Amino acid sequence: MNNKKVGIVGVGNVGATLAFSLAIKGSCNKIVMKDLREEIVQAMALDISQAANASKSKTVVSANASDFKDCDVIVITAGIPRKPGMSRDDLLLTNAKIMQSVFSDIQQDNPNAIYIIVSNPLDAMVYTALKVSKLPKNRVLGMAGILDSARMAHFIYEKLGYGEGKIDAKVMGGHGDDMVPLPNYTTVDGKKLTEILSDEEIDEIVHKTKHGGAQIVKLLGTGSAYYAPAYSTSLMVEAILNDTKEVYPSAVLLEGEYGYENIVAGVPVQLGSKGAEKIIELDINEKRQKEFANSISSVKELTDTLDSKFFV
Ligand code: NAD
Predict the structure, then answer these.
(1) Which pLDDT value is given to residue 1?
(2) Centre of ligand 1 from the C-alpha of residue 181, in Å
(3) Residue 117 C-alpha from the chain's centroid
(4) Which of 74, 88, 178, 226 could be cross-linked to 295 through a Cys-Cys bond (beta carbons 3.0 to 4.6 Å apart)?
(5) Mean pLDDT across the stretch 197-210?
(6) Nearest C-alpha to atom 31 of ligand 1 is from which residue?
């Protein structure tokens, strides 16, 4: 067990499941949680702490506001989902305001934290977090690519009927309908996906991956997925806490990488104690480059709106 502290702001479905996952794995010494719903967060802290005790984990769980300081990693899942009658811009600006208020609330007491953003729209929220915090780009990153890659792996297994636990899928780009699954970089038990399935079958998997989140939203009726998002986030947290140098797709600010400037998008990133330590530039073919450009322009639309309506 390391001696690290993880803060979680926004203890709804994703935040609570993340806390549960880290606590029972014993991923850190302490978890401290914060939410506007103060009594509920107290209840969650008790419940999760008791789960940790059941699993004989040494992780301590707290919801005391005075404990929310000197965190090594802070995960932000605070935000609202879109409601009927709201435009995408309304959600964007509302969650940007929440992001700003969260940073003004916690940043000063956590001078060395690395921030992992989960709130949507993901890439635009990472951009917001970077601007309001003025932190260097290695210390603010977003979770989406591990989740999208896991969804792709799920659909590959569903198609093949074998390969469970041995599928290494890769997705990059923004966390939206135009994310960029990379079949050329995807393997099943070490074998290239492109040598196993036809182009049509791969297209079907790509389509399902892009709409994997919406499929769950539709079935749930209210709210969105949280088990896979939370577990995916726990992997990023652990890579940073334990300085593993693991490469995971993460949303980071691009400054020349892949030919883009001042835009946030999901790319493979080496994670370690300094956060996003190194962006890995994959050699992607022309088709995927075009898809990536398309994905980037969707993110840019949102960040342009932020620049013209929020950061004025
Ligand atoms: P949720 O509604 O269950 O939880 C959100 C929590 O944030 C609530 O408990 C709410 O009280 C809290 N909150 C709101 N404003 C706050 C503030 N200012 N300070 C502290 N807490 C505040 O939602 P969820 O399902 O947990 O999802 C959380 C966010 O994560 C959403 O924006 C969702 O779209 C996003 N999400 C992203 C991914 C991804 O891949 N990046 C995956 C799943 C969900």
Answers:
(1) 76
(2) 25
(3) 6
(4) 178
(5) 96
(6) 119
Integer Cα distance of 282 and 185 in angstroms: 9
> How is residue 139 written in tokens?
């210390």
pLDDT for the residue numbered 86 = 65
175 is known as an active-site residue: yes
If we measure between CA atoms, which residue out of 288, 240, 296 comes closest to residue 265? 296
Q: Which of 154, 175, 207, 211 is catalytic?
A: 175
Would the CB of 31 count as within 6 Å of ligand 1? no
* Nearest CA among 182, 164, 159, 162 for reference residue 172: 182
Cβ neighbours for 98, distance < 8 A, ≥ 6 positions apart: 78, 79, 80, 119
pLDDT at 87: 63
Categorize the per-residue pLDDT at 84 as very low, low, confident or very high, splitting at 50, 70 and 90. Answer: low
Ligand 1, closest atom to CA 229?
42
**Which residue's alpha carbon is nearest to atom 9 within ligand 1?**
12
**Average pLDDT score over residue span 254-264:** 97
CA-proximal residue: ligand 1, atom 30 (nearest) = 119
Contact 265, 123 (CB under 8 A): yes
Confidence of residue 85 (pLDDT cuts 50, 70, 90): low
Residues 268 and 292 sit within 8 Å (Cβ to Cβ) = no
Quick one: CA dihedral 43, 49, 52, 54, positive or negative? Answer: negative
For 253, the 3-state DSSP assignment is: strand
The whole-chain average pLDDT of the chain stands at 95
Q: What is the pLDDT of residues 296-311, one digit of tens each?
A: 999 999 999 999 999 9
Q: Does residue 62's CB lie within 6 angstroms of at least one atom of ligand 1?
A: no
Mean pLDDT over residues 227-235, rounded?
98
Q: Which of 74, 83, 120 to mutate to test the pocket of ligand 1 (most atoms within 8 A of CB)?
A: 120
